[in-house]
Amino acid sequence: MTNLEKYIEAFTTSFELDANALEGLEYQGVAQWDSVGHMSLIAALEDAFDIMIEVDDILALNSFEKGKEIIAKYGVELS
User: Fold this and answer.
1) In this structure, are residues 19 and 62 in contact, taking their beta carbons and an 8 Å threshold?
2) pLDDT per residue over 9-37, tens digit each?
3) How far apart are CA 38 and CA 14, in angstroms?
4) Helix (H, G, I), strand (E, B) or coil at 63
């Protein structure tokens, strides 16, 4: 499984969405992406990439696209 596939899986699993629904997805854009869902996503990303996301980055991760930028800061290439 590629890193991009792991990234997509973290979102689809955390929010019970189809991968096609992720493009343009933003925080609170679906009912599942509330504060609890957000922390579930963070945990899934940390587990998938064996990283520890800093608090500032947890707060900044407010969209599917922004998450890609944040994950890249931790040395994870999503391609």
Assistant:
1) no
2) 999 999 999 999 999 999 999 999 999 99
3) 8
4) strand
